[in-house]
Write a structure and sequence with these properties.
The chain is about 80% helix and about 0% strand. By secondary structure, it is an all-alpha fold. Helix 3 crosses helix 10 and helix 9 runs antiparallel to helix 14.
Length: about 325
């Protein structure tokens, strides 16, 4: 593997600030991002990528490649929770296995954004419609995870949780709602709307991403101590499953004929794990599951692995396959 790819990714300012946040916790600095700024940063990033994605989707049009890509995205969001569930059930109980499987079937928007900035730095083009794939992959894993509980929990009665609440949390939670809404508005407002919003959606984008990753570094380092509760099984799972999921994503991307930039973003979506939307849904619908397991695995292990090693590793594999 070309070490320069890892160096290019690690030495980008947003990723370096992620390390700075972790270092602040390890050195017991009082550095912190005051609430509710991290939530605002998250909403801004979702708005910015959604708006740009909608604008780019109109420019590219709806082609066979777009349709196949979106279908592949939904398929992966449904399949990943199923096979990861059975892997996890080897060592974990039903509820924790389902919650973690749903977490890894969904996606991390910030990992996707980091991969996009990595491609931009390398001068590799990618299509705006990949944001639509991001939006479509957020929710299905929540539904699949809960269906698995329904199927395998003999003693769990149908009335234990409301499916209307589950569906509302899956499809109308703030991140999904804002991302899809911004995508639609970006498409409807067209080029005129893009010119009006561009200074806001693009001019400060990397600055906000930098502060968001600084906060993520603080949060991730604070969760490190919880890893002792997970044992080596979940630690290994959190590193190896993203690689497996990315490999499947890369093979699908090759079969569809995606260009390299799109293939990287798709593989990153397959490899990432949700640490916002799915944990919020799981806390409401599966209180039997332990949040310290699925949140810590996704945020303290998989997220840093993907932004440090995973993104350049997946691009290396793509470059080999694409020749």
């Amino acid at each position: 593997m070309d070490v320069s790819l890892i160096a290019s990714n690690v030495l980008s300012p947003p990723v370096l600030f992620f390390f700075l946040g972790m270092l602040a916790v390890f050195l017991k600095s009082d550095l912190e991002i005051p609430q509710p700024l991290p939530k605002l940063f998250s909403l801004y990033l979702l708005f910015a990528i959604g708006f740009k994605g909608g604008n780019e989707l109109v420019k590219s049009g709806v082609s066979q490649e777009v349709i196949l890509t979106l279908l592949a995205a939904v398929m992966m969001a449904c399949i990943v929770p199923i096979y990861t569930f059975f892997i996890l059930k080897v060592k974990l109980d039903l509820y924790n296995a389902a919650a973690i499987a749903a977490t890894y079937g969904s996606i991390s928007a910030v990992t996707f954004i980091t991969a996009g900035s990595f491609l931009t730095e390398l001068g590799i083009d990618f299509s705006g419609y990949m944001v639509a794939a991001l939006a479509l992959m957020e929710s299905p894993a929540i539904i699949v995870g809960l269906l698995l509980v329904k199927l395998f929990a003999i003693d769990k009665q149908d009335g234990d949780f409301s499916w209307s609440e589950v569906l509302q949390e899956a499809f109308l939670n703030s991140s999904v709602f804002l991302l899809v809404g911004s995508l639609i508005i970006g498409a409807v407002s067209g080029e005129k709307g893009w010119k009006v919003e561009e200074p806001f959606t693009q001019g400060i984008f990397y600055g906000v991403l930098t502060f968001f990753l600084l906060d993520m570094g603080l949060v991730a380092a604070g969760r490190i101590k919880d890893l002792g509760k997970t044992g080596t099984f979940l630690i290994s799972f959190s590193i190896l499953i993203p690689i497996v999921n990315a490999a499947i994503g890369i093979l699908l991307a090759k079969a569809i004929g995606m260009p390299q930039g799109n293939a990287l973003l798709f593989s990153v979506l397959c490899a990432s794990a949700s640490y916002i939307a799915v944990p919020a849904a799981m806390r409401m619908t599966l209180p039997e599951a332990n949040p310290s397991l699925y949140v810590t695995a996704a945020l303290a292990l998989t997220f840093p692995f993907n932004i440090i090693v995973g993104i350049p590793l997946y691009l290396y594999g793509i470059n080999l396959l694409w020749g």
